[in-house]
Amino acid sequence: MSKIKVSIKDIAQKAGVSTALVSYVLNGKEKESRVGQEIALKIKQIAAELNYQPSHLAKSLRSGKTHTIGLIIADISNPFFANIARVVEDEAKRNGYTVIIGSSDENADKSRDLLDVLINRQVDGFIIVSSENSEQQIHNLKDKNIPFVLLDRYFPEIPTDFVSTDHYKASYDAGTHLVRNGYKRIGMIAYDSHLFHMQERIRGYRDSLRDNKIDFQNSWLKPVKINTIENGVKASIDEMLASDQPVDAILFATYSLSVSGLKHINHLRLRVPEDLGIVSFGQAEVFELYYCPITYLKQPIVLLGQTAVELLVKKLTSNLNEPAQILMKAELIERASSKAKYSVLT
Amino acid sequence: MSKIKVSIKDIAQKAGVSTALVSYVLNGKEKESRVGQEIALKIKQIAAELNYQPSHLAKSLRSGKTHTIGLIIADISNPFFANIARVVEDEAKRNGYTVIIGSSDENADKSRDLLDVLINRQVDGFIIVSSENSEQQIHNLKDKNIPFVLLDRYFPEIPTDFVSTDHYKASYDAGTHLVRNGYKRIGMIAYDSHLFHMQERIRGYRDSLRDNKIDFQNSWLKPVKINTIENGVKASIDEMLASDQPVDAILFATYSLSVSGLKHINHLRLRVPEDLGIVSFGQAEVFELYYCPITYLKQPIVLLGQTAVELLVKKLTSNLNEPAQILMKAELIERASSKAKYSVLT
DNA sequence: TATTTTTGCTTAAACGATTAAGCAAGTTTT
DNA sequence: AAAACTTGCTTAATCGTTTAAGCAAAAATA
To answer: Does domain A167-299+332-338 have CATH number 3.30.460.80?
Structure first.
């Protein structure tokens, strides 16, 4: 069997030259480095013959660049993030980068661990979907001068590059849509989180009610703890329906919340949209296959992912960096679950 | 601001010793290498003080081990594989390994590219969910003595380590279950693929009919090209229903097929299970939220992933390797979509 | 013809770690 | 007091690349 690993040294030996020449030729620097035509050809042939594969490790050690991006997402089991991951991976590859994915599971400690592991794997930079209470980590990255771009979630009080959906606008649109379609008592189930994107979604919802002259009731807004979604959602729905102003529509702030919610709604034998109108953030096959297709806010996943990679790569390759803060629009996909309750004037 | 990157050299300098001593101390070899107590303490303090993080790159270059596993899966957008990926990642981390994930998108060329990229990123070994026509790649890995474990799919004619579900048995059970519940004309929609696991699923289906004295009809088995699922499934269902022996139940060989199938079944306004019984491979929220919860074959995802990692790590750390070929059982989760058609004797 | 320039190559240091080998002291054994 | 260990450290090679600097021979210029 052939040698375990063929290095530049093997080629040099076989060609009867120094390793330097081989390196020059194999990196296309024959002209600048004044390598003879014949010997250049010979080196190339031998390299091909031995099926030489350069060691990424050695290259990286020398250059200080690994051509690797660390992608830290909040939850890989959420299809939204899984898709983001895929887009990022593809786009990175197109730019010559490999991606190492880590899921923080919405947990700041895990996120910190991931960052540490990836930093001393020498990733060139990060794309991060932040989890709650991870502000300090972002500050650390800035202090250490490690390039990164925040994705989907960002901290308004920390000046960083980010690419995100306009969560406020999305939520506002969803609320307005429900009002226009005749729903009068619109509830929202959200994560009990200080994360800005969640606060924005809530703010958008409340403003949409206010601007449409609907009196917001405290019992309509239910924050659910992220680690007890299933039960939290159940209880929230029960309460929303039991109040003296029972809701006739619910806006779910995330995909996971709506999945739990729809299960419970089925269980209660409520009909959508007759008994309860539904709009949800996120997108998934579930929403198409549910007996009543679900109206949802479609985030521009591909564009989000691509732009994040593009931004990061720009930061990595050029050193001028005008900070970029990009907000994108979500699209409201109208389905049966938020159908107009009765003919409404427009 | 502090130095960009602190190396063993910086510590040595500050402590007034050679780099060798630092290395010994930081690797806990103080005893074997007879390092003085005082200086050892001093070195540790300085390392902590400077927040020294060893360069994984340099370590790997020296040792030839990267402590990285390459995970190549057939399709990251399929929740089954996404979950597998998550399990593998967690289990690997528990063993001190990092995972680099790549999706081959069921394409042999892409799979080959991924292997190449990861090989010269020097991953220590692979866990692979093979795509069609990638046998040669498996042979190459064997020739190059690169450790790997096949996951979920394997090639019976190539002796390799693998961890897989017993696809034959799963399919056989599903078929038998439908027969027992009174379905008489059971169709199957599968991928048009030579992959062994798919052939096994088909064989299990056919054997279950045979053993239950049901005359298999050629029109009941529909292979669908993997890159035209949506239309392929539509056509298949239409044909199955139009034949003179129209099916009264369908077994879907994969999650993606059933999602497409259910959409079309909705569109045809067929009722499940009254008009059509359904059993599917794979598992997902879809199956719970569909108006009629879907009976499915639940593969032991966690155990599959963990075992694969365990096996690979064993191959990487010890050099004795009795080949391991592990088959696990899928569990049939019975839901309403394959309800007994009428009271049946058991 | 003497000098400069160009051409085609080699040498060697560097990236950051590990580790076998070696070398002075100090300590123990005879 | 000579021989033999021990102790506590340093030196230097190595992993696979890149690249600045240097050097001799050939070619161009004076």
So the answer is: no
Helix (H, G, I), strand (E, B) or coil at A219: helix
User: Closest nucleotide to A18's CA, by C1' atom?
Assistant: C10
Domain spans in chain A, listed from the N-terminal domain onward: 8-54, 67-165+301-328, 167-299+332-338
Residue B121, pLDDT above cutoff 70: yes
Query: Cα separation of B163 and B66, whole Å?
Result: 24
User: Domain A67-165+301-328, what architecture?
Assistant: 3-Layer(aba) Sandwich (3.40)
- As a whole number of angstroms, the distance between CA B130 and CA B73 comes to 7
Contact between A4 and B145 using a beta-carbon 8 Å cutoff: yes
CA of B40 to C1' of D1 (A): 36
In the DSSP assignment, the letter for residue A86 is H
Query: Rounded distance, CA A20 to CA B226, Å?
Result: 48
Note the CA–C1' distance, B46 to D10, in angstroms. Answer: 20
Comparing C-alpha atoms, which of A305, A87, A105, A115 is closest to residue B86?
A105
Tokens at B25, concatenated? 């101390």
b/e B321-346 (16+ beta carbons within 10 angstroms → b): eeebebebebebeebebbbebeeeee
Same fold, B8-54 and B167-298+332-338: no
Residue with token string 């009765």: A342
The answer, yes or no, to whether residue B346 has pLDDT greater than 80, is no
Cβ pair B187, B221 in contact under 8 A: yes
Which chain A residue shows the shortest CA-CA distance from B105?
A: A86
**How many CB atoms are closer than 10 A to CB B309?**
28
Q: Please tell me what DSSP assigns to residue A31.
A: T
CATH of B8-54, one of 1.10.260.40, 3.30.430.20, 3.10.50.40, 3.40.50.300: 1.10.260.40
Nearest CA in chain A to B99: A100
For the segment A221-251, what is each residue's pLDDT rounded down to a tens digit?
999 999 999 999 999 999 999 988 999 999 9
Surface of A (3-42) touching B: CB under 8 A: 4
